[in-house]
Structures are given as structure tokens and as C-alpha cells.
Amino acid sequence: MRAFTTLTGRVLVLEQQNIDTDQIIPARFLTATDFNGIGEDLFYDWRFDKDGNPAADNRLNQPDARQSPILVAGHNFGCGSSREHAPHALMGFGFRVVISSQIADIFRNNSQNVGLLPVVLDKDQHEQLLTMDGDDITVDLGKCEVSTHTVDGTEHRWSFSIDPFARHCLLNGLDRFDFLMQSDAAIRAYEARL
Amino acid sequence: MSASESLFDKLWKAHVVQQQTDNTPAIIYIDLHLVHEVTSPQGFDTLREHGIKVRRPERTLATLDHSTPTLPADSEGRRPYVTEQAHRQVQKLETNCQEFGIELHGWDSPWRGIVHVMGPELGATQPGMTIVCGDSHTSTHGAFGSLAFGIGTTEVGYVLATQCLLQNKPKSMRVNVDGELPKDVTAKDLALNIIRHLGMNGGTGFVIEYAGEAVRALDMESRMTLCNLTIEAGAKAGMIAADETTVDYLRGRPKAPQGKAFDEAARRWLEFRSDDNAVFDEEIHLDANQMRPAITYGTDPGMSINIGDNIPQASNTSQQKALNYMGFNGGQSMRERQVDVVFVGSCTNGRISDMRAAAEVLRGRKVADHVRMLVVPGSEAVRVQAESEGLDKIVIAAGAEWRLPGCSMCIAMNGDLVPPGKTAVSTSNRNFEGRQGAGARTLLASPATAAASAVMGRVAGVADVQSLQEAV
């Protein structure tokens, strides 16, 4: 897994609440047997009309979208299906971080497993971030801190909490698989009792 | 066993391989791993990359359901896959199962079906188990008093390789449904009522135990419908403690213990229940007597009303966006809405009792001329049973289509889909934008409501069909 330590980059805001994984990657794109190129289909039905032409007014089609590594999304992001294609598509498009005031359980877990950093902030912090579309912010996983640098000089430093093991694995680019494989003795001992 | 544990506490404790610490999650043993074609290929690739085998092939069970056509093969045996890629995905699972020695209920198996319909039918799903699958509706299996939840593809690989998962213990919630459900209120209506109460994210971070008189009174298929929809409130898993109803359902099923071993297993199963003084992080009580048949009007399963009620006014921009997508105005009557497509099936409502409920409404009636209705049994076993009861003939005589088992129009991966802008009354589980096809508008409801709407050609309850009959 690709390590994540700290990142300064542009924010892209999708304000809508309850963005589900069917929006992130519609089910008809799930028949592939690998994740290669899946970023091209991200939010497909938002980004393209029924004839496959880009929807001009969609935020994700603006020129800076693919250079914006930090997605700030409305409350309860990633609900619905367990498809891991969702975090893969977000990463394939160019995102490294997703920030919301609530992130659905399975999506959060999948994101941590594939190297997309899920960050949950308090409601008022999140609301401020929702107004910072296009701004640069810094997400520091070592310090567990989001910091903003706005034009009028106000600065915010917001700390967030994350599962310590997920943090450890992301910081060091470690695969959880290795941890499980190293636990073979414990698994054997458990199986002996079955 | 200390006497203040919940069912969930007991299930968790029984499966801890290595305790959770401040810095590391617990390692949890998985008793049953269900596999389908969509979320598994990259998991098998992980095994190949590391040069390892499936640790417990006998605890792994596979089927074909999501990408499979529901129309029959042609005279040369060619199945009408929506794309060549969908066909390749199915073939990939066939090869993976062969290579890694996993039992696959493929095209030639009498047990093939939607993974959450098939597991219980085989008796593979049993109380006291931990069950996972790369599918969020794995919560279905909690109906048997097991801890069952959906995982991502990376974790499918972990379970194939180690039969274990890394987990932090979630919080617990008990949802008590007191009283008795009115006769026309099904498990689907009950679930929609609960999700409306909790909200589509009210269960996030929790495992839910359903309890109370109205839950105990449900048969197993209804319990599966209820637990299936737990994920639609954001909860990781839903469960109902095993009782005599559970034991009776499992007796004689092929993968359940047989004879004396069954009685011993049943005794053990019944121990998995919450102690009288068990403590939950949250506990709520709902009154079954107050519940009515429900239908969704928005783009998440929490947005539902009783069939006779009017569409609520939007109270924020996300709700307004949902109403716009659905083509509804606040204050409008639900019964005014014309219906174009009706779908009966899915892991939520694709079981024999669902087929019977739909057929009962369709018997001797016709689907409205402008409505296309698809009835898709959840498994081969359901299809065969339904056909032996003549349900297929009732469906076809009413002008609806009777299909082969699969996920079909619930996820619209196989070519069965709702056209853009059209309204579907669907017995499935998600009314998200585009879930049943790009631009499709989904109203979630029970099989009886779906069939009644098909007959009336607009949103309708069973009572509407009956009063029409009386008027004639």
C-alpha cells in the first residue's frame, strides 16, 4: 500500500449529503476483474449525460478537479454497497483524502485498506471546509491534523481521530495482510479449539 | 459466562483469535465465507501474488448471482450476458473456484441463487457463526443469530488466506419492536419504518439486535428481510437471537448437522441470546401496532411514508435534490404516481413467501397495460418451489415476466434495468439515484404493494386492488 504522511493540496467540495457508493461508481462498471482505469468512471452519471458527453456544470469536470487531491463531501459519505471499487475509483481519479462529518463504516474500512485516507471532522469544522472549494489545505496524518490557510489570513488547525492501527499502516505504507499472516500461530491455536 | 452479555458480546467473544489492544484491532475468526463473482476476483489474485492457498475451502461457499442473465440460454447453450466482460467475470469465478478447491453453486447447481438466499436454504448459515461476504447485504444472515457483515475485496483476500479479519468492536444497539404488526404490514414495511426512525445513517458504527414481541413473531424469511435491510440504516450487522423458529427452519437442510448432531447443535444455538440484564450502547422501542405499509419517495431508504400519506416538504437542499430527481413535489399524494416498471425479487424479497405474496395479488388479475413487471426468484430452489405451486403461471397469466434467479434489476448489472426517468416500484433494497439504471426512479415497497401497484398502474396498496374488485 502507498504510504500517506502529509499532503498539501487543493480542496474539491461536493456538498451533497449521503453520497452513496452507487453514485461514486455505478454498478454497471463493476464487471471488470481488476481495478485498472476505474478512476475514469468515477461519478460517471454525474459527470456525463446520457449520450456520454461531459456535463459542463459538474464540479468534477472543471479543469482543476484532477489536480485536487482532497475531497470534502457532505455528511454520511460512502453509504450503501460494500464495493471496494469506490475508494479505488476515487484514488484513480486523483483523490488521496476524503473529509466529511460522517463516513460510512464499510467504505471507511475499504478506504483504509487501499490507501485512501478517510477523515471525519466535527460538524462546524466540516461546515467551514465546505466553503473552501478550490483552497489549499494540509492534511497531516502524523499529527492527525487538518490545517487551512485562507486568503484573509485566518488559519485553522483541526485535529481528527483515526483508528491507531489504520494510521500506523497508512503512515508506513504497510499492508494489514502481513499483520494477519504473522498471526498464524494465534489462528492455529484458535482452530485447534474448534 | 458473566450474566450481562448481549447476543453480540457472546458472538464476538466466541470468535476472538487475538484480543484488541490500544494499538491493534482484534483478530476475528470467520466461520463462513460466502463468495460471488463481482467482489472476489482481486481477492483470489492476492492469493496468487503471495503463492498461498485458500486456508479453509470447506468454510467457503460460492455462487453466481450479480452479473448473471435472468433469461435462459439459447438452443446452443449460450447465455445472454449483458457484455462479454460480464461473461468473463463469471468464468473467472468458475476458474478460481476450480483452482482453489471451493464449492461453487454455478449454472448447473440446483442451489444456485442470490448469495443471501442460497446460504440459508442450504443450512450453511447457522446460529452462533461469524459470516462475511463481499456484499453489504450479508447482514441478512444475522436473522439466524449470527454475526454477519459485508466486507471489501481486500478483506475477501484476507479471509480467503487466513480465515480471519481485523476488527475493532462496534457499538451495540437494541431495537425493540413491541406489540403486534397489523395483518397487512410485512417485514419489508417494518424495516422501512425502522430505517425511517433511525435515518439512513442512524446505525453507523453499530451492530443492531432486533427484539420484542413483533420480531419474535416473524417467520425466518421475514427475519431475513428485516436483517437484510439493516445496512440501509448504516449499521454493520443486524441480528435476531435464534429460537424454535430458527431451529425448525434449519432442521433437515443439507449443510445443517443431521440426526443427533442436530439436536446437540440446536441446544448450543439457543444459548446465543442476550442475557436479561444485557447492556446496549443504545436501545430504542417502537410500537408495531402503529405501523402501516410503507413506500419510499426519495433517494435513500430512510425517505419513506405510509402509502396513503402525502410526500413531505423538503427541509434541506439534499432532500429537495432527491424530490427533484424523483419528480415529486412536497404535499403530493403518493397514490397519484404512475408506475412504469415493477420488480419483485432480490436478496431482500426474493424468497418463496415473497413470490407467494406477489402471486396472491396477481391471481386472476392483469398487470396494467403500460406497466412492465419482472418477477425474479431469489434462487433455483425458490424457482422450483414456486413453479411446483403454479406461481409462475399466475405471474405469466397476469402479463408479467417470470425469470431465472439472480440479483437482476435490484443492482441492474446484468441488463435488467429501469429506463431513464421511469418510475419503478421495487421490492429491492436501494432507491439511490441510478441504482436500477441511469436516471431510474425507484420506490421501495413490499411484494404485495409492488404487485398491487402493477395491477393498478400507479402506486397502490393491496386494499386498493381489493376495493377495485368490490366496486366491479
Question: Which SSEs are present, and which pair or pack?
Answer:
The complex is a heterodimer of chains A (194) and B (472).
Chain A (H helix, E strand, L loop, with lengths): L5 E9 L6 H4 L19 H4 L22 E4 L11 H9 L3 E4 L4 H10 L2 E4 L2 H7 L6 E5 L4 E5 L5 E5 L4 H9 L3 H6 L2 H10 L1
Parallel strand pairs in A: 1-2, 2-3, 3-4
Antiparallel strand pairs in A: 1-5, 5-6, 6-7
Chain B lengths: L6 H8 L1 E3 L7 E4 L2 E4 L5 H10 L9 E4 L20 H17 L2 E3 L9 H8 L7 E4 L13 E4 L2 H10 L1 E4 L3 E8 L8 H12 L7 E6 L1 H4 L3 H9 L8 E3 L4 H7 L8 H11 L12 E6 L6 E3 L7 E3 L10 H10 L14 E4 L1 H4 L2 H11 L9 E4 L4 H9 L2 H7 L3 E2 L20 E4 L14 E4 L2 H10 L5 H10 L1
Parallel strand pairs in B: 3-4, 3-6, 4-5, 6-7, 9-10, 9-12, 10-11, 15-16, 15-18, 16-17, 18-19
Antiparallel strand pairs in B: 1-2, 2-8, 13-14
Helix pairs in contact in B: 2-5, 6-8, 13-15, 13-16, 16-17
Provide a brief overview of the structure.
With 194 residues, chain A is an alpha/beta fold.
What can you see in these coordinates?
The complex is a heterodimer of chains A (194) and B (472). Chain A has 194 residues and is α/β, with parallel strands linked by helices. Chain A has a single domain, classed as Aconitase, domain 4, CATH 3.20.19.10. Chain A is 30% helix and 19% strand. Chain A is built from 8 helices and 7 strands. Chain A has a 7-stranded mixed beta sheet with strand order 4-3-2-1-5-6-7. The longest helix of chain A has 10 residues. Chain B is an alpha/beta fold and 472 residues long. Chain B has 3 domains: 161 residues, Aconitase, domain 3 (2-Layer Sandwich); 98 residues, Aconitase, Domain 2, CATH 3.40.1060.10; 173 residues, Aconitase, domain 3, CATH 3.30.499.10. Chain B contains 17 helices and 19 strands. A 5-stranded parallel beta sheet of chain B has the order 5-4-3-6-7, sandwiched between helices. In chain B, strand 1 and strand 2 form a beta hairpin. In chain B, helix 13 packs parallel to helix 16. The relative contact order of chain B is 0.13. At the A-B interface, helix 4, helix 6, helix 7 and helix 8 of A face helix 2, helix 3, helix 5 and helix 11 of B.
